[in-house]
Amino acid sequence: MNEPVVLKGFGKGIAVILDSSCDFEIICDHFKQKVINGKNFFSGYEIPIQFIGRRLNSYELQKLIEIMKTFGGVHDIIFPWDEISFHNLLSTAGESAEDIKEEQLNAKIHKGTLRSGQVITSESDLIIIGDVNPGAEVISKNNIIVLGALRGIAHAGISGNKNAVVFALEMDPVQIRIANIIARAPDEDNKHEKGVAEIAYIENETIVVKPVTQF
C-alpha cells in the first residue's frame, strides 16, 4: 500500500482504507491531513464510515473518531453493519447474508466508560467505545457491541429479536439478556480466557457465549 490512508466513497458514506503495517501515529497524522483537506466531504450531521484493512482496538477507533469530529466537522458517525465484518456475526446468529444486505442497519455510538447507575438505550444497534462497569446497563432493540470490557448488564433485542447478539472485547457481565432469555455471569471455572473477544447469542432457546474466533 503506497499511502497509509486512502479515502473512497461508497453510496453516501466513506470507506477509510488503512495500512495494516504502518505505525498508528503515522496513520493518525495522515488521516488528520486527509480530513482537513476534505472537510467539506466529511461535514454533515450523520456520516456512514467504514474502516478497512486494519484491525482497530477501542483506543485507536476512538482516536480516529475524535479526528473526524475535531477537524472534519462531523457530528454523528454511523457504522453501516451491512458494509463491515460484523454482518458475519449477525448472519451466523440466524439471519441470512441476503437479509442483512437488504437492511440498512445503523448504530448509536457512545464514547466513554459507563459507570454504576448509567443507562444507555438505543432504538438500533448500540456501540460502546469504552467499558461498561458493574452497575451500568446497556439496552438495545438490536445488537450490542462493547469495544472494551462488559462488566455490567446488557439487554439486546428488547423488542423480542432473538437474532440479536452481544459482543465485547472482554466479556465479564453481571447479566446478559437477549429478547426474553436471561443468562447470568458464569462461575470462575466456566469463564473463558481473559483478553479474548467473545460473543453471546441464542442457541436452542439458551444464551451461549463463545470466543469470537470460534463463532
UniProtKB/TrEMBL annotation:
Family affiliation: Belongs to the MinC family.
Gene: minC
Record GO biological process: cell morphogenesis; division septum assembly; regulation of cell septum assembly
Alphabetical UniProt keywords: Cell cycle, Cell division, Septation
InterPro entries: CAP/MinC_C, MinC, MinC_C_sf, MinC_N_1, Septum_form_inhib_MinC_C
Residue ranges of domain Septum site-determining protein MinC N-terminal in the record: 5-71
Record protein name field: Probable septum site-determining protein MinC
Organism superkingdom: Bacteria
Subunit structure: Interacts with MinD and FtsZ.
Domain Septum formation inhibitor MinC C-terminal: 110-209
Protein function: Cell division inhibitor that blocks the formation of polar Z ring septums. Rapidly oscillates between the poles of the cell to destabilize FtsZ filaments that have formed before they mature into polar Z rings. Prevents FtsZ polymerization.
